[in-house]
Amino acid sequence: MSQSVGKQGWGIAGAVLTLTFWSITPVMLGFIARHDIDAWTANGWRYTISALVWMPLLLVARRRGSLPPGLMRKALWPAAINAGAQSLYARGFYAIDPTLFVLGLRMQIVFVAIGAAIMFPAERAVIRTRRFLAGATLATLGIVGVLFFGLRNAEAVSAGQMVLGMTLAVGSGASFGAYGLAVRRAMHGVPSALAFAGISQYTAVVMLAVMLLVSPGHGILPLHAPPLVLGVLCLSALTGIAGGHVTYYMSINGIGVAVTTALMQLQPFGVGVISFLILDERLSPAQWMCGVVAMAGAVMALWVQHAMRRRPGDRDDLEAFADLPPDEVVAAVVDERRPAAEVATRS
Question: The whole model's pTM is what?
C-alpha cells in the first residue's frame, strides 16, 4: 500500500514538473526568437545539448549488454520524421507568439488518431465513435476560432504572418503525430528512455548539419549573444527535450499514460500565463474561449482512444500510446499495463 502511494506521489510530482517544463520552454523559444538567433541555430544547439545529455544512457546500456538489438537501425526513420517536425515547430515561434502556437498544436491529437487508424487496423473503431468525432470537431473548431479572432484583432502581427504561424503549428502537430506513430511502429518492445535516447542522437546530427549549412551565422550567433540569451537557449534544451522527458516517464510510471497525457493538455494555460508575464503576449477573451474548446475537444478525443484501448480482450499490439505535447521529441512507446522490466525484456 505504502509503495503504491509513494509511486503515485512520484508520478504526481513528475506530472507537475513536466507541465512546468513544457509550459516554460515555448516561452523560452519565443524569447530566443526575439533576440536574433534563427530557428536553425536554436535547433542545432538545443538538440546537440540534449543528445549529449542522453548519450551516457546508451553507452551504459551497451556496456552492460542491455542495449536492444538493432536499436540504432530502428531509430533511423522516426528520427528523420522528427527532424522535419522539429524544423516546422521551431520556425513557428518566429511567426506568432508561443500561446497561439501551442494552441494550434492541439490538432496533433486528431492527426495521431487518424494515422493510428490507418497504420493499426484494430484502432479504426476509435475514429468511428461519436465521442471521438465530437472531440475532433471541437478541437478543429476551436483552432479555427483562435485563428479567426486572431486575424480579426491582429495589431502587431500581419494577417499573413498569423496564417503562416498557425499553419506551421498545425503542420508541426501533424508531423509530430506521424513521428509518434513511427516510434510506435519501429520501437515496439524497446524501453521508452532508450528509444528516445537513440532517436535524439540522429535528430541532433541532422539539426547540427542543417545549422552549419543553412544558418546565417553557421551556428556561432549564440556565442556573441548576451549571457542571458545563451543561458535561456541552453536551459530550453534541458527543460524541453532532455529533462522534461525524464519527469514525463516518472509521471507515466506513477499515474499512468491516460492521466498524464490528459494533464499535459493544460499546457496552453501555463504557456499563456508565463508568456503574458515575460513576453507580454495577450490573447483576447474570444481566443481563450476558443482555445478552451480546442483543449476540451483534444481531451475528449484522447480519452476515447485510451478507453477503447483498455477494453477487456484488447490485443497486446494495442499499447497505451502517450501523445506528448511536442517540443519536442516523442519517445512514445509506453505500455502501462506491464512493469518496466517486463517491457524491456519481451522483445
Answer: 0.78
Dihedrals phi, psi of 36, to nearest 5 degrees: 60, 30
How far is it, in rounded angstroms, from Cα 205 to Cα 54? 14
Q: Would you state the cell numbers that stand for residue 61, as one nine-digit string?
A: 546500456
CA–CA gap between residue 53 and residue 56 (Å, rounded)? 7
Q: Which domain holds residue 126?
A: 2-345
Residue 42 pLDDT > 90? yes
- The CA distance from 29 to 244, in Å, is 15
Find, among 76, 125, 103, the residue nearest to 173 by Cα.
103
Say if CB 8 and CB 255 are below 8 A apart.
yes
The secondary structure element, H or E, covering residue 322 is none
Which residue, among 107, 78, 115, has the nearest Cα to 333 in the 3D structure? 78
Q: Tell me if residue 341 falls in helix, strand or coil.
A: helix
> CA 291 to CA 269: how far, in whole Å?
9
Tell me what the mean pLDDT of segment 4-31 comes to: 84
Nine cell digits for residue 233? 537557449
Q: What's the structural domain count of the chain?
A: 1
